[in-house]
Write a structure and sequence with these properties.
With 372 residues, this protein is an alpha/beta fold. It contains twelve helices and nine strands.
């Protein structure tokens, strides 16, 4: 108690002193001490404000980039989006820091967008840059040292590109041999009828992806022990569908001639010229081979496989669908497919329709919008 009394007395003497070294020192030290306390609080506020501003600036740049990539915004609209996004994200920080007695201020952000052509179709590459400043008010304790606020700065850059257009040509090589008249798991629906439904679903997806008929060309050729005349590659999927709907089953099986015809049509200079004249684009090429059996002669397998190998070497993707096929037919189609993911085993009508739907989805994704 005696010690506490002595300490208290000493403190009172320090603050009450009006002359001499003690009074002078107190007058010098107290503002600095109080200011130092304010600096500690403000340092924490400034660090939090800097982090919050950086996060908001990053989000603003990404928001503008997203709008441009999805092609629903112009450059001016994307700039406005960035400014609005930044202001919205900083509302909480402005309110929290303004409670110290002075108003926190978010400066008008500088948003720039540079763009250039990708050189493919109408695709564009762009860079969104956002720069922002935020004035953080200082506490009254820090103002003793003469400062009223501290400005923090953040910059962010987001790169991207709009959709790159692509085009494709697809040739369907379809088995119409006598076994295609056999029943499936669907009552009253034989194999050939199931095939027609499957092709219709695939073509519908391509039409949806290319409603104006500028990027997708399709054709079909049917075969049994000999090849039929093909439908011819067309911008209108309806032409291909009409060809398939007229097919009737009969005969034995030889896929080699039809595959040679389809491959030659796909890879010939005339087909590329059609696309270049329409869009200036070189098309992706797809062969779709379907069978429910196996070839009658071993040479037919050899010749069919040779076409598949040639297609692989020329970046022509080969999809194959074995529809309730025996082991020998499955083996050929498995080796013909460009990759294992391009080979489908369909053991019933539903699986056949699903296989063609999957092929349609893959192709549709490449039909118009290649990259985001």
């Amino acid at each position: 108690m005696i010690m506490l009394h002595l300490v208290s007395a000493a403190i009172r003497s320090f603050f009450c002193a009006t002359s001499g070294n003690i009074g002078i020192m107190a007058a010098m030290i107290m503002p600095v001490a109080l200011g130092a306390g304010g600096v500690s609080i403000d340092a924490s506020n400034i660090m939090w404000a800097k982090s919050t501003l950086q996060n908001a600036t990053d989000a603003a740049a990404l928001a503008a980039a997203s709008g441009l990539a999805n092609e629903h915004m112009s450059v001016d609209e994307a700039k406005r989006q960035a400014r609005v996004f930044l202001s919205t994200r900083m509302i909480g920080a402005v309110e929290a820091l303004s409670s110290t007695g002075s108003e926190a201020r978010l400066g008008s952000p500088d948003v720039t967008i540079a763009s250039e052509s990708t050189g493919v179709g109408t695709g564009k590459r762009f860079v969104v840059s956002v720069k922002s400043d935020f004035a953080v008010p200082l506490t009254p304790l820090s103002r003793i040292l003469g400062a009223t606020d501290m400005t923090v700065h953040a910059e962010s850059e987001s790169k991207g590109q709009t959709a790159t257009e692509s085009s494709l040509s697809m040739f369907l090589v379809l088995d119409k041999s006598g076994s295609m008249n056999e029943a499936t798991n669907k009552k009253g629906v034989n194999k050939l009828q199931s095939l027609k439904l499957a092709v219709e679903g695939l073509l519908a997806q391509l039409t949806k992806a290319d409603p104006n008929g500028k990027y997708v060309r399709t054709a079909a050729i049917a075969y049994n022990n000999k090849e039929d005349a093909p439908s011819g590659l067309s911008w209108d999927e309806g032409v291909t569908l009409a060809y398939v709907k007229k097919l009737a089953s009969g005969g034995s099986t030889d896929s080699s001639g039809a595959m040679k015809t389809a491959y030659a049509a796909l890879t010939g200079p005339a087909e590329t010229a059609e696309h270049v004249a329409m869009t200036g684009l070189t098309p992706k090429r797809f062969l779709v081979l379907m069978t429910d059996g196996d070839n009658t002669a071993a040479k037919n397998d050899t010749d069919t496989k040779a076409v598949c190998d040639k297609a692989r070497s020329t970046q022509t993707t080969v999809y194959t669908v074995a529809f309730m096929a025996p082991a020998k037919g499955k083996s050929l189609l498995s080796s013909c497919a460009t990759t294992s993911a391009n080979f489908f085993q369909a053991e019933d009508a539903d699986a056949l329709i699903a296989a063609f739907a999957s092929i349609g989805r893959d192709a549709s994704m490449l039909a118009v919008r290649l990259t985001k």
